[in-house]
Amino acid sequence: MFVINCPYCGQREQSEFKAGGEAHIVRPKQPTELSDDQWAEYLFMRKNIKGIQFERWVHSHGCRKWFNMVRDTSNDEIKAIYKMGEKPPVK
Amino acid sequence: MTNNLRVKSSKFIDETYKISFKFNNKNYYGYKGDTLASALLANGIHLIGRSFKYHRPRGIMTAGSEEPNAIVQIHKNTSRTEPNVRATEIEIYEGLEASSQNCWPSVNFDIGGINNFLSPVLPAGFYYKTFMWPASFWKKYEYFIRKSAGLGKSPTEPDPDIYEHKYIHCDVLIIGAGISGIIAAKTSAKNGFKTLLLDEKPYLGGSTIYQNSEHFKINNQISSSWIEKEINEIKKIDNLEIKTRTSVAAFHSYNFLLARENLTDHLPLHQRDGKVRHRLLKIRAKKVISATGSLERPLVFDNNDRPGILLSSAIEKYSNLFGVACGQKNVLFTNNDSAYETAISLFQKGINIEAIIDNRENVDSKLVKEIEKNNIKIYKGYTVVNTFGYKRINKISIMQLSKDGQKVVGSKISIDCDCLGMSGGWTPAVHLFTQSGGKLKFRDDDQVFIPDTYPSDQISIGSCNGEFTLDEILSSISKKLKDFLNIKKTEYENLEILSHFNKTKRNIWLLPSDKIIGKTKPFVDYQNDATAKDIKLALREGFRSIEHVKRYTTTGMGTDQGKLGNMHALGIISETAGSKMGELGTTTFRPPYTPLTFGTIVGRNVGEYFDVSRKTPIHDWHVENKAKFENVGQWKRAWFYPKENEGMHEAVQRESKAARDSAGILDASTLGKIDIQGTDASEFLNRVYTNAWSKLAIGKCRYGLMLNEDGMVYDDGVTTRLDENHYIMTTTTGGAATVLSKLEDYLQTEWPELDVYLTSVTDHYATISVCGPNSKKIISKVIPNLDLSDEKFPHMSFKNTKIDKVKCRVMRISFTGEQSYEINVQANYGKSVWDKCMQAGKEFNITPYGTETMHLLRAEKGFIIVGQDTDATMTPIDLQMDWIVSKKKYDFIGKRSLYRSDTIRDDRKQLIGLVTENPKEVLEEGAQIVLDANKSPVEMLGHVTSSYYSPNLEKSIALGVVKGGKNMMGQKLIIPMENKQINVTVTDPVFLDKENKRLNA
């Protein structure tokens, strides 16, 4: 059970949040231009890293805001939290 | 029976307070302060139960929560009976009834004991190997295996006790109130930290509290007196909370811990009524100090499991704390100095010691010398090779160890005894530390795993950190606490410590025997009857990973999680496989540290409190009118309204007929409602629905289908344009929350440039749907001012209006295919509007209908229910709903996926209608659909998704999904059932009123 520092509300229990998968996957602007393979890449392919992973989280039982998290999946240490649209911190 | 084994009275036992209890239906008594184990030992009883696999007689081995053998069933009552309770942890109370487990007909004469003699043919993996063939026999084997598996009996009735959960936040949590924990708690609290100190035992002070020897002194006081003074002081500190009988079950990441506080299990039965039995503490601590201590290791030799064989430290505890002698002819067997501490304690109490067997050849510590001084025979460099006595040990034989410790040499010596204490050194209790994600390192000197890297703000101190002696603990604790708590000084900086413990140890994981290993039974895991022999067999058969060996031999898989034997298992594997202990690693320690009852886990969330239930504003009316309810998500929805003797079928048939013949009324308040506002609202809807929204006029409604990005149908519902930049979207009842989340996700992360605001208003409005040929007449009575003419208020439009002075929105939309009006009114007025409609509809026999009738009516029209006729593998094309997918729009969620190679396949499962050859025969939902039931293997074409008997069509109708179904109109198919085959024909999914005439009838 993590303690997550919501960028809008501050420190809250993990039970107030939901994870939303890998971060920084941008929905293609022109999906119709893409081949099946390119679209599948966007649609299905996700990283599952042991180590530093960039993730989306939402404060679903709080402010309902989405934000990004850098987490070490090997020990669950949260390295950084930043708002949607902000640049990821350099590794 | 008399308490003939009580020795000099102990100050922890109140001999003026007698308590009687039953064990295996016989009456005994003990004193206040006794555990079941100490009271039984005082009565001369060692035989407690039978082992799991071989049904060998087993006794009390330990004096704590690590006990593998002395586990009993308590309470006779079928709702409170509890299996696998450790006799070493039960504090006796008036009325206690305990009995042995895993034996029949009795612990003294157990038929299963035959397994002990069959053991040569019951090696590790016996069940895996034997019951594999022939595969078809498994069902027969399983019956017998299940019957003989498992320890104890579960209660068969609901638990009448009360449990609860409590959140605790603290600055510093200290686990374990031994000498390290007491010092840490005092230091932390005195420095102003909000401190919580937990211990699983009923008393504080750990093993130091009964350490009554001149050999261990602090500031010139015997260590037990010193700690007693400390305990008295910490009890007075305000910001220190102390909880005894509280066992930490789990240590999760970010210093989140679960602990079970046992509140009533030690009380006489009549004092427990109405009190909370266990409390689960959910603790979030800024800092955690683990002072969990260490567990003494047994020694692994032939027949090391007989009743009367205990850990040496347990014998000391029974004597010093409980004032009980475990035997009258005691022998101690050790590889380190600990057994001499025990010997000195026993000697002080006048308990007879026959001999000490020490693996070590050269030992001359002060403790050893004191024993020698008192003329107790010490066999140095010897090992026990066998033990005798079936239900209680009566003799051991010993032999000299070779120089390398691999063999025994010389001749056998026999020693009579009735109790054997063993000490194989100490294992730090690192279970909680590793649960929290901590990594261990192996210390070769004394062969122990100790904490290495900490994953959170925590430290381990004392013997759980590998500091086993008084001087080791006290010389380092001050600096550790200063660094960890960031404080300048402690009151423990310059303690004068006297400790005569010599640290030398001769560690031999599997002691040698004069017999070949195949002929011996050196137990490693007592509870699961796994021997060193089994572990070696597993290695011979090719198992290498410690986790695999564990599962194959079941070592460490009992309710004690192998607290005693795991290290020996690792040691034997590493010796046999020639690998290093440190590289081998340990098995994973999983929560809970000691077993929790289900009641503790569930707390107050039982019965109606198990989950939240949501009720509509009209709920009470449904209850008064005898509705049966169904759960839709957390909602309680009226399912059908049976009259007098009606069953579900009759009620639904009547309701369905009434809705089409005259008028029906439905409480649709549970439908999800999302208020959408903003200048980009139309654009937003364009992007999330498959159809076009920009041209929808104000005051008009439209049905929309929402896909996932993978093209699969996600949700559907009608959305109404209330104003230029204002829409109200309805979603399915179950999908409301997830649809809102998904829309928010897109708005916030993909399209932040859109000016759109979403608000859930599901609970704010009551929704009442009146349908049927007479619905217009009823609504005109309820809202006389509203022009209901088809020209002014056509199908798929909405009006803002008022009922009396209450504002409401009326939508003319239909999920039944009938002319239909949906009144949305602020929730508080829902019930009164419902009553008005019922009143106005009386002359038209207005009939309330539930979800079942709603489903039937929509199935007649071939309308899908997302989640019933779809299952996240259906595209709108599969549903034959091509008409709703805009060809013009450049993009919407899921559009690109609609022409992936997989989604354009012709042989995808597609929605179709099904009619049965016999119109009376109603199909089962979920039934398989095949073309040829005789072909082997039978090809599954699809399945039935919705099925009803339609009273309006007077025949059975069904919807289903079938591979390539779109091109199978008129095709005859078969529904194979258990004892018959049903012939069906594929039809269009719309069964009634294809021309939609009834909408304007």
Summarize the structure.
By secondary structure, chain A is mainly beta. Chain A is built from 1 helix and 6 strands, in the order βββαβββ.
Features:
heterodimer, A: 91 residues, Folate-binding fold, four-stranded antiparallel β-sheet, two-stranded antiparallel sheet, B: 1001 residues, alpha+beta, Ubiquitin-like (UB roll), FAD/NAD(P)-binding domain, seven-stranded mixed β-sheet, elongated
Descriptive report:
The complex is a heterodimer of chains A (about 90) and B (about 1000). Chain A has about 90 residues and is mainly β. Chain A has one domain (about 5-25, about 35-85): Folate-binding superfamily (Folate-binding fold, 2-Layer Sandwich), CATH 3.30.2270. Chain A is built from one helix and six strands. Chain A has one helix spanning about 35-45; strands spanning about 5, 10-15, 20, 50-60, 65-70, 75-85. A four-stranded antiparallel beta sheet of chain A has the order 3-4-5-6, with no helix packed on it. A two-stranded antiparallel sheet of chain A has the order 1-2. Chain A is globular. The model of chain A has no long low-confidence stretch (mean pLDDT about 95). With about 1000 residues, chain B is α+β, with helices and mostly antiparallel strands. Chain B has five domains: about 1-155, Ubiquitin-like (UB roll); about 160-295 and about 430-500, FAD/NAD(P)-binding domain, CATH 3.50.50.60; about 295-425 and about 505-585, 3-Layer(bba) Sandwich (FAD/NAD(P)-binding domain), CATH 3.50.50; about 665-855, Probable tRNA modification gtpase trme, domain 1 (Gyrase A, domain 2, 2-Layer Sandwich), CATH 3.30.1360; about 860-1000, Probable tRNA modification gtpase trme, domain 1 (Gyrase A, domain 2, 2-Layer Sandwich), CATH 3.30.1360. Chain B has 23 helices and 50 strands. In chain B, the strands form 13 sheets. In chain B, strands 8, 9, 12, 13, 14, 15 and 28 form a seven-stranded mixed beta sheet that branches. Chain B has a six-stranded mixed beta sheet with strand order 41-42-43-40-34-44. In chain B, strands 46-47-48-45-50-49 form a six-stranded antiparallel beta sheet. Chain B starts with 13 loop residues before the first strand and ends in a 14-residue tail after the last strand. The interface of A and B includes residues 3, 36, 64, 65 and 66 of A.
